[in-house]
Amino acid sequence: MTDVVTPPTSPVSRERSKEIKRLSVISAARQVRVLSRAELTELTGLSPATLTPLVRDLIAEGYLIERGPGASRAGRPRAMLEFNPRAELVAAVSLEPSRISCEIADSDGAVVAHRTVRLTGDIVDLICTAVPDLAGDGLPALRGVAIAAPGVSSGGAVRLAPSVGLVEGRPIGESVRQRLGVPVVVDNDVNLMAAGEHAAGAGTDVADLLLLHVADGIGAGLVLDGQVRRGSGGAAGEVGFLPLDPADQGHDGIGPFEARWSESAIAEKVVSLAPGRRPGSPVRALVDLAAADDRAAAYLDEVLAAWSRLIVSCACVVDPGRVLLSGAAAELDDTAVDRLQALVSAAAPSPTEVRRAVLGDRAVLHGAVSYALSAAAAGLSTLLPAP
Amino acid sequence: MTDVVTPPTSPVSRERSKEIKRLSVISAARQVRVLSRAELTELTGLSPATLTPLVRDLIAEGYLIERGPGASRAGRPRAMLEFNPRAELVAAVSLEPSRISCEIADSDGAVVAHRTVRLTGDIVDLICTAVPDLAGDGLPALRGVAIAAPGVSSGGAVRLAPSVGLVEGRPIGESVRQRLGVPVVVDNDVNLMAAGEHAAGAGTDVADLLLLHVADGIGAGLVLDGQVRRGSGGAAGEVGFLPLDPADQGHDGIGPFEARWSESAIAEKVVSLAPGRRPGSPVRALVDLAAADDRAAAYLDEVLAAWSRLIVSCACVVDPGRVLLSGAAAELDDTAVDRLQALVSAAAPSPTEVRRAVLGDRAVLHGAVSYALSAAAAGLSTLLPAP
DNA sequence: GATAATTCGTTCGCCGTAGGAAGGAAGTGT
DNA sequence: ACACTTCCTTCCTACGGCGAACGAATTATC
Fold first, then answer.
1. Where are the extended beta strands (E) located within chain B?
2. Could you read off the pLDDT of B117-160 as tens digits, one per residue?
3. Is A387 in contact with B381 (Cβ distance < 8 A)?
């Protein structure tokens, strides 16, 4: 947010307020899906007289579709308007080690088109050709692009915030924004997952949540007051570095906690408990194993205890109220989650609910949708004077 | 924030936009203190024509005071306007075990009047008579009341968020608001300190910070993106409960970490190192002692190591970028702070600056001022459509 | 020292928008 | 069929933002 020259535009210029009204209506419609003009006056507070031309415009632009008359107890039936999710498209680009996957989704998070491209040449070029190509006719409806950089879960080169920042700072994000002309957000995938679960998953009913993603590393995405919080250096959620046990040691960009309790660390142990090929889902394998094997059960207890201390730590610092288990942690079965919950409740200073994330792979996509849609509205936040 | 019936007022009604402009100007003036109308056009983006009547109003209301002409290189000299801090007063009420202290401050945080009252009868009555009484003529300028409930630092009955919530929920805050007719914020004192340091202390230049307050308990106040974050249950910053060492055990509402590393725990140890009366400032005493006594030096090392792990834990979860030492932790001398900084830098996943808080006792007051002033502007946040 | 140049602030007036009021539209109840 | 209710639209007015012209107060220049 390098305040370049801060174009000193009036806080309440005409276009501004018009834009605000538009967004009020659109966001109300997006939530309610099918509604009448009368409901819009209630929801937005705008007068019917103001709404008439506004709605007309929105219908013309395809945001709203006029449907037949709705039910009415008495009087003229309300002419129903349906929100058209296809009116707003977003692109979600996921950077992976050797390829990028690119999806176009409507504002429901329904995938309209997707493609995977091998990583050759310039990333920016790749994105800037793939996205318009995929969007096709829908390109004018594109509202934003969200780029998920491999964060914690990669375990590879691009790992800590500073290096993600390298991608985030100007190079990719700003270049793509300039070439496509829409807002672009670059963030690590765990943050996007957290945003996704908040927008469309297991966190729609709360304003705060923490998504704990266990993979080769361990990372968390933090939503506070409805917004993803990245911290000052973008390193919020680097919970793999928590110093929860003096005995544990991290190394080479691997935090002390995740060195011992990440999916890969667990996988090794599972192999030693049940020799054979490294299982694809070591945590699930461990849960299964624990049913019959005492040593596995004991180790599972250890894992749960460790994870619970991690969760409690987060609860102490930010009190998210709800913790979502993602990645390998989502492989726990109900009883294991219950036990984890019990451990957390016993030690956390405030009620903290532990449950599994529900979106799985689609979390990043939904997060991207949510980012891109709110990025469109973000221009407005300039409106409020700084306290 | 019980959304009562959501008064469906238009997002961009005329009065609203007028109010926004007013606040834009006021907030610009508050920051710059002395400025001309020309500077206001630059800062707010409003046209000179719009400003003329607005400034006239503000002068009439006492927000701005016309001063003589300012310097000018060429052309007509700018007529300077000075922001009048007395135009906005706030009350800061601090609840203590057996009394309440009440201060009226202007928006600079300068105390205009103060009084301490023994806690007799109904708290709400007490506050609602003391505040108007203290404010006197200035009552119409009262913009808000901030009530600091003894949080972590009390070590007594009112300790965890739920119990503070008891005070916070309806009883006190809402009653006072209704009787005085101004916004009221109730929060624990550590949060207020964090807000104060952010607004007027060692954190004015950053958007994120964590204030670590060591007293009988250990608590933290968290500012992220310029706002105090309380978490879902108001228990954010309960870092005394961090499970950083399996050996430590909490009890009776005392967290495991603070049981061992709080000011009172340190005081005991200091007494055992240098028999005598319990020192008033045990940490300072320890620092002094460590200069000459090897055992004290070793123990100081332990304390610093423990605190550093606490700070690192916070850095992992929220990455505040800056940590302010408050309460007993602010008694460390420069070399001790430097060593703490080194320990933190070695283990934190992102750069984290450790320094002492600067406001001391006045932090709560400044926090109250900042709360009350932003509460006045808070009505505006309704303006933006939810994403 | 007069005149030009420059910068500030204000007044005027146009335009666009918000929203009140009234009226038409399209149903339900009696 | 008639009143009644509710919804939506059109007309109209009032008001606020801001462009433009103007007056004010100083410095630079000849």
1. 34-36, 64-69, 79-83, 89-95, 99-106, 111-118, 142-149, 184-188, 209-214, 218-224, 227-228, 322-327, 353-356
2. 888 878 888 899 999 999 998 898 898 888 888 764 333 334 43
3. no
CA of A249: how far to CAs of A154, A241, A257, A328, B5, in Å? 20, 9, 8, 22, 54
What is the spatial distance, in angstroms and rounded to an integer, between the CA atom of B76 and the C1' atom of C5?
11
Chains A and B: how many Cβ contacts under 8 Å? Answer: 241
At which residue do the structure tokens 């049940």 appear?
A274
User: B-chain residues within 8 Å CB-CB of A27?
Assistant: 385-387
How many angstroms separate the CA of residue B263 from the nearest CA in chain A?
A: 19
- Asked if residue A78 keeps its beta carbon closer than 7 A to nucleic acid strand D, the reply is yes
Residue pair B231/B215 in contact (Cβ under 8 Å)? The answer is no
User: Are A323 and A317 in contact, with CB atoms under 8 Å apart?
Assistant: no
Of A26, A59, A83, the one marking the end of a domain is A83
Which nucleotide has its C1' atom closest to residue A36's CA?
D7
**Nearest nt to the A38 alpha carbon by C1':** D7
- What is the sign of the dihedral through the CA atoms of B153, B158, B162 and B167? negative
Residue B231 Rama label (left phi>0; alpha psi -120 to 50; beta):
left
Q: What is the C-alpha separation between B319 and A235, in angstroms, rounded?
A: 6
End-to-end alpha-carbon separation of chain A, Å? 18
Range among A1-10, A177-186, A228-237 rated most confident: A228-237
Q: What is the pLDDT of residue A13?
A: 60
Phi, psi dihedral angles at B10 (to 5 degrees): -60, 140
Residue A79 contacts strand D, CB under 7 A = yes
Do B167 and B62 fall into the same domain? no
| Residue B71 one-letter amino acid | A
Indicate the pLDDT class of residue A377, thresholds 50, 70 and 90.
low
- pLDDT classification of A151: cutoffs 50, 70, 90: low
Contact A385 B20 (CB under 8 A): yes
In a domain, B9, yes or no: no
Candidates A162, A313, A318; nearest CB to B243: A313
Contact A230 B45 (CB under 8 A): no
Q: Closest nucleotide (CA of B52 to C1')?
A: C10
Q: Can you name the residues that pair with B35 across neighbouring β-strands?
A: B81
Residue B188 has pLDDT above 60, yes or no: yes
Task: Indicate whether A75 and A96 sit together in one domain.
Answer: no
CB contact under 8 A, B312 and A241: yes
Share of chain B above pLDDT 70, in %: 87
* Phi, psi values for residue A307, rounded to 5°: -60, -35
Tell me the nt nearest to A47, Cα to C1': C19
Same domain, B215 and B332: yes
Q: Which of B50, B83, B116 represents a domain boundary (last residue)?
A: B83
CB B296 within 8 A of CB B286: yes
> Which residue matches tokens 């006029």?
A66
Whether B232 sits inside 8 A of A320 (CB atoms) is yes
Per residue, what are the HEC states of A3-36?
CCCCCCCCCCCHHHHHHHHHHHHHHHHHHHCEEE
- Reply yes or no on whether the pLDDT at B261 is more than 80: yes
Checking if the pLDDT of B269 tops 80, the result is: yes
CA dist A210 to A214, A286, A323, B224, Å? 13, 24, 5, 15
Examine the domain organization and report whether A234 and A351 are in the same domain.
yes
Structural domain of residue A284, as residue ranges? 204-358
Q: Is B225 in the same domain as B300?
A: yes
Q: How far apart are CA A88 and CA A139, in angstroms?
A: 10
Assess whether B246 and B166 both reside in one domain: no
Record: contact B161-A319, CB cut-off 8 A: yes
User: Chain B: nearest CA to A33, how far in angstroms?
Assistant: 14
| pLDDT at res. B377 | 62
Distance from CA of B42 to the nearest CA of A (A): 6
